[in-house]
Amino acid sequence: MTNETLQAKMLVESDPHQTAIAVLENDRLTEIYVERHRHRSIVGNLYKGRVTRVLPGMQAAFVDIGLERDAFLYVSDVADEVLSAGREEMAFDLDEPANGSLSSAPMPSIDELLKQGQELLVQVIKAPLPSKGARITSQVTLPGRYLVLLPTVRHVGVSRRIEDDAERARLLELVSEIAPAGFGLIVRTVGEGKGRAEFEADLAYLTRLWQQVRERTGRAGAPTLVHRDLDLALRVVRDVFSPDVSVLVVEGEEAYTRIVDFLDQVQPSLVPRVKLHGSDGALFDRFGINEEMEAALKSKVWLKSGGYIVINQTEALVAIDVNTGRYTGERNLEDTVLKTNLEAVAEVVRQVRLRDLGGIIVVDFIDMTQEEHRQQVFRALEAELHKDRARTKVLSISEFGLVEITRKRSRANLERLLTQACPYCGGTGRIKSVSTICLSIRREVLRSRDEPHAREILLRVHPEVARALQQEERPILEELERALGVAVLLHSDSELHQERFHIEEV
Question: pLDDT tens for residues 103-127?
């Protein structure tokens, strides 16, 4: 299936508490964006900050931008001579400069560039995590509909996703002509095929925005927010809604009006494709989006053939395992394995996009003995990844069916957004078995056998543990009564953590 055959639509559901946007391809959910209004993303925001610490040993600095934790600024995100690597973590991909490689001048030390107490304009490129502050850059990028304005870098480029050489050359020549003196411009992917008028209108909007930022920065004291990026609805409409999307359905008149007004400014031709959802039922319920989101939080995903994939997220990487499951095939084992792997390719990439998995992703396909089959699966994987807006890189498939993928992302994935660490298991995903808990109780009671006891011992335990001690683990209770010479009573307490218990003398 190629991009040309995709039938895409977008759904926007907004209420006073959150905005959620679903992207469907051939009526299958492939991307989901959620923003809680109380926890709006700060990626893309511009702050006037104050340097609090300069760390030459790390070639970095901490900057107070008014958040709970100071933000982190690498030297490569400060130096004017270098186009920062951090910018590639934004929602668009940059190309190499039109005039060749970047400057080869040696990188200055961080303490030559920044001093404690210094004030500077910075932009958030990575959201803060529970254990660390936001990552920032002083190389500001202002994305528009077709262009990205680089106020601090003299650089002209084209999105890597525009692959036609003739079109790239045309766009480079065009933006080189219209780029303001001292500014840089990047053509975004949606700029492919667009003419001078569209780019000049977008540039006029971006230069006005930059002037407003400069004026606010001059008046404000540090630390303070000087420019907030668009909210989720407008940001996704700007970056994702294109002529390839057949319809944008919006629930909520206020959100509908804002989206239409925004498109009137940036791309009026798309306004007729925006529809207000007038049905009594919730928009996401009508398309089964909520059920799909629930399923995306589970580790096992079934394939139509009866096979399945298992997704495990760890701190270091994401592991995805492909299994034949209930599928037994029709001809021979090798054909069964190939069909399962090819079916898994589409679902693996869909789940990666839907869950917004990032970093290192290792896919363990079912072993294939024929090299031709391995290459067929690898080509199918490359074709599916081409649909992904995030920047990905895939290594060749091994003889054991292992493929390593790296994928960039700048926002929290779906699991982090919709869930929290389990207070019951402490984030491990597992707790002690009932049998293990019963043996722990035995050990604790016998440990106190030499101490004087009353006539009875009361064990306050979780209901599941109480059930086990009365049934399959009954011999433990009998052993304790014989060893201590006292009656052992059970009290079932549903308020207890399953692993916890209390031993009381009565």
Answer: 445 678 898 899 999 999 999 998 8
